[in-house]
Amino acid sequence: MTNLSIAGLRIQRSLIELEAAIEAAMTAASTLNSDLLMARSVEGAPPAAGQAVLIRMGAAQQSLLKASSDTFRMHGDLRKLNEDVKALPAEDGECPDRHMAEAPGDREKAVA
Fold this sequence. Notes:
Radius of gyration: 20 Å
Order of helices and strands: HHH
Oligomer: single chain
Number of strands: 0
Distance between the termini: 42 Å
Structural class: mainly alpha
Largest sheet: none
Strand content: under 5%
Number of helices: 3
């Protein structure tokens, strides 16, 4: 049977891996977007070449940014849960600020 400390350490490790993977995906998407834009400037390429691809690329980048924001919020929620169950010692500076991780409109939704 897994105790709280071991479960907390596993969650901590997995969360760090998830955050790194999302950051890597965002970096890769930005590189691809840059490459796509540079390809449009190649002599002989029509000005609107790849417009639909660029639109989809923008949507993919927005999805990754939303995933990053949701992960920050989840990290904050897990931090609070950890404080409640005391699975691991609190490590200030390691976790995102809860307000930084809020999506636009979150506070308004909570008040409504």
